Structure formats: C-alpha cells, structure tokens
Amino acid sequence: MKTIFFTLMQVILVSIVLSGCESRQTTNAHLEEAKKAIAVSNAIYFQAFEKNDSSIFINRYAKDCCIMPPNTPALCGAGAPLAFFKTAYTKFGLRNGKFITTAVFGDGIEFVTEEGLWQSFDASGKLFDNGKFLVLWKKTPDGWKMFRDSFSSDRDK
Questions:
Q1: Calpha distance 140→146 (Å, rounded)
Q2: pLDDT at position 27
Q3: What pLDDT, on the 0 to 100 scale, is given for residue 25?
Q4: In terms of DSSP bridges, do strands 143-153 and 61-68 run parallel, antiparallel, or are they unpaired?
Q5: Environment class of residue 17 by beta-carbon count within 10 Å: exposed (0-12), middle (13-18) or buried (19+)?
Q6: How far from each other are the two terminal CA atoms of the chain, in whole angstroms?
Q7: What does the pLDDT read at residue 21?
Q8: What is the model's pTM?
Q9: CA-CA distances (angstroms) from residue 9 to 3, 12, 71, 77, 104?
C-alpha cells in the first residue's frame, strides 16, 4: 500500500512540475509572438511620415487607443491617430524616426507593455527630438495594436 501511495505521489508531483513548465513555455510563446508583432509594427511606423500616408500610422493603433503626448491632453478614440499624425507631420515636421525597444513585459495573451527610446527626424534627416516611451499593446482581432501610447522628450524645450 505504501509503494502505491508513493508511486502515486511521484506521478502527481511530476505532472505538476511538467504542467508548470508547459504553462511557462506557452506564456513565453505568447510573449515572443507579441515581441515579433511589435518589432514589425515599429519598423513600419515611421514609413507613414516618410510617405505622408496616415493610413500606415492609423493601422498601428487599436480603435479604442489613447495617445498621450507630453504637455497636452490625451487624444483618445478612433480619430486620435489621425489627429496626432496631422499635428506631428504639419506642425512639427516629423518625417522619420526610430524606436529602440529596451524591454517588453507581460504574458503576451491580452496585453504587453513595451519600454523604449525614440528619435524624431525632420525632412533633412536632422534629429530634432528624442526621449523615452511606454506603450501598452493590446491583442485585437486585427493583431497587436497600440492601446496606450505615452512618451516624453529628453530635451529641455
């Protein structure tokens, strides 16, 4: 009877350990999928400004997004990306840029948070602003989209 009990306990313990490993592997797979989608989106993002094509920019964001630039109220909702794009393109002369992702946090199932640095360039390729950002990404039926986009400049204006 003791042998059966100990054998049963060993089977249960091995099952628990293996299910924990499987769960972590699944979570890691979800997170890796999110990281890849973010990298693809970030690579496309500034093409919108190079081509003056707001549709590229708008497609990076969830329909219920909020863009939270410094020193101004948040822009929220389906119209927020277009409003931000127009301001960045016409008022600030944004024509190109670069994102440097330093970390992605989360389980990759519904939301992940991206942390990083950004640079903005004008039409002549001159760096005119740079800073840091946090983006909360949301998995939507259309893929990973920016849900909350918050950033600030490292420059004293």
A1: 10
A2: 60
A3: 55
A4: parallel
A5: exposed
A6: 78
A7: 46
A8: 0.82
A9: 10, 5, 60, 54, 38
pLDDT tens digits, 21-40:
444 455 699 999 999 999 99
Whole-angstrom Cα distance, residue 57 to residue 67? 12
Block residue for tokens 């219920």: 64
Residue 102, CA distances (Å) to 4, 46, 77, 99, 156 in order: 52, 18, 27, 9, 23
**Dist CA 47 CA 9 (whole Å):** 58
Question: Taking every pair of C-alpha atoms in the chain, what is the biggest distance, in angstroms?
Answer: 82
In this structure, are residues 113 and 78 in contact, taking their beta carbons and an 8 Å threshold? no
CA–CA gap between residue 120 and residue 84 (Å, rounded): 14
- Which token pair is 50? 């190079």
Angle at 100 between CA 67 and CA 81, to 5 degrees: 20
